[in-house]
């Protein structure tokens, strides 16, 4: 009898272990695919816009007084001491982040009414549309709309998958974080590799249509959901409060349970037997107030991070290096993404509670590189490589640790909303940095 009980216990443990690893891999792939289009659009947009500008240009004569605003190799401002493009690289970033920011600001207040299955289908469709629209675009406006669709897919996906993680074991957060970090490396590398191999940007984007397919397959066929998870209906549609499907979403505000052990979480059946009260708008605003201690440091990290990437790195050019300006900039971005990937994967090894400290260190990076642009005291690009690697490590660590501690320190009934609402922090920081990069770019290029 004891032997049979022990055998059942071992089989149960093996099944749970297999399920956790399968869900970890599923969230890793979701993170990779969700951020992939966002990264690729930042990599591809310049090529697409440059091709269209060359097609639409009827005369090679530049406009007088440096008013030519075409994004092309001929748009450099030769009167500046910097090798400047007429338009900052923040322009494409702004188009890539504003729709995401709008979604993250508003969706937490109504998105719970939309089933997760429908959300994933929207992410899949908008990602496919973005790749096709940019690849077939014949005007700059059409390309920008393609970037907007990529932003919608990425923003809705990030908000939804972070909320979805509360229904699974906490280790899926490290899988999600690692996957989003890998998206930066894989997206930039694969796009560069395909185009370097001789494929046109258009064909390269067609090949990458496989990524939204992987996202849909990972969600619908790889994840192992709780048996009562409502895939195609919203929470609580017609059920009594004591038996609401997916009742993890709503819990009394006075409940402040914490998980002291990974296996101490209440079972799905126990959770369903608890009284359920939907979060009101007032409840959500109260939760948002409590989340500011996470949102503000995360936003500050990303403001400094993307101000460096889109406002300063394009101005850090070393003419004596064997690398061209384009190659230097490409390597800055690639090494930064390597740092992000490493730190977003680090959650499985250690946690860092002091997010605000990482914000301050990232701001110091921005100040240092700002002075480096103005005074030009750095000797070579290799020093910048080390700094941007460190920059990526700080940014990635701030992201995964923020959402880990939100999950740990938020009452269970509030977690789904909190994870979605806090995701606005990084997007707000990125949008503000893109806006700030325009006058900074203009100032330096006018010197």
From TrEMBL:
GO terms for cellular component: early endosome; late endosome; lysosomal membrane; membrane raft; neuron projection; trans-Golgi network. Residues 255-271 have a biased composition (Acidic residues). One of its GO terms (biological process) is membrane organization. Residues 56-74 have a biased composition (Low complexity). It comes from the Eukaryota. The chain crosses the membrane at residues 25-45, 116-134, 140-161, 173-194, 206-225, 291-309, 329-348, 355-377, 383-405, 417-438. Keywords: Endosome, Glycoprotein, Lipoprotein, Lysosome, Membrane, Methylation, Phosphoprotein, Prenylation, Transmembrane, Transmembrane helix, Transport. InterPro entries: Battenin_disease_Cln3, Battenin_disease_Cln3_subgr, MFS_trans_sf. It is found in: Late endosome; Lysosome membrane. Signal peptide: none annotated. Residues 53-74, 235-274 are annotated as: Disordered. It is a multi-pass membrane protein. Belongs to the battenin family. PANTHER family: BATTENIN. This is Battenin. The gene is cln3.
């Amino acid at each position: 009898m004891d032997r049979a009980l022990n055998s059942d216990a071992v089989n149960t443990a093996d099944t749970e272990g297999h399920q956790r690893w399968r869900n970890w891999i599923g969230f890793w792939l979701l993170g990779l695919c969700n951020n992939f289009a966002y990264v690729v659009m930042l990599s591809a947009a310049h090529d697409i816009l440059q091709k269209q500008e060359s097609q639409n240009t009827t005369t090679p004569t530049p406009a007088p007084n440096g008013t030519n605003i075409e994004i092309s190799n001929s748009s450099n401002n030769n009167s500046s001491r910097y090798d400047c493009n007429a338009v900052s690289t923040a322009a494409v970033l702004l188009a890539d982040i504003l729709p995401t920011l709008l979604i993250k600001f508003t969706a937490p207040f109504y998105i719970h009414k939309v089933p997760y299955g429908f959300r994933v289908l929207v992410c899949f469709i908008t990602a496919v549309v973005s790749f096709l629209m940019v690849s077939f675009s014949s005007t700059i406006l059409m390309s920008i709309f393609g970037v907007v669709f990529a932003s919608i897919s990425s923003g809705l996906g990030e908000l939804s998958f972070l909320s979805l993680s509360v229904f699974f074991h906490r280790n899926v957060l490290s899988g999600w974080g690692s996957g989003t970090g890998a998206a930066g490396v894989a997206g930039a590398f694969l796009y560069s590799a395909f185009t370097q191999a001789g494929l046109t940007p258009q064909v390269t984007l067609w090949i990458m249509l496989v990524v939204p397919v992987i996202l849909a397959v990972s969600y619908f066929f790889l994840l192992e959901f709780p048996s009562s998870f409502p895939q195609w209906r919203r929470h609580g549609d017609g059920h009594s409060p004591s038996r609401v499907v997916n009742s993890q979403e709503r819990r009394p505000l006075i409940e402040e349970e914490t998980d002291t052990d990974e296996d101490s979480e209440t079972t799905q059946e126990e959770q369903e037997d608890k009284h359920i009260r939907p979060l009101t708008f007032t409840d959500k605003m109260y939760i948002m107030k409590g989340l500011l201690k996470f949102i503000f440091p995360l936003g500050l990290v990303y403001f400094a991070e993307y101000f460096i990437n889109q406002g300063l790195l394009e101005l850090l050019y070393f003419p004596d290096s064997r690398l061209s300006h384009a190659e230097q900039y490409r390597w800055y971005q690639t090494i930064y993404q390597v740092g992000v990937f490493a730190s977003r994967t680090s959650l499985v090894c250690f946690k860092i509670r002091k997010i605000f400290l990482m914000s301050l260190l990232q701001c110091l990076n921005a100040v240092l590189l700002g002075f480096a642009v103005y005074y030009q005291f750095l000797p070579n690009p290799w020093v910048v490589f080390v700094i941007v690697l460190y920059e990526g490590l700080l940014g990635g660590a701030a992201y995964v640790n923020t959402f880990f501690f939100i999950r740990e320190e938020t009452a269970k009934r509030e977690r789904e909303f909190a994870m979605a609402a806090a995701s606005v922090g990084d997007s707000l920081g990125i949008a503000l940095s893109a806006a700030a990069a325009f006058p900074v770019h203009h100032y330096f290029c006018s010197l």
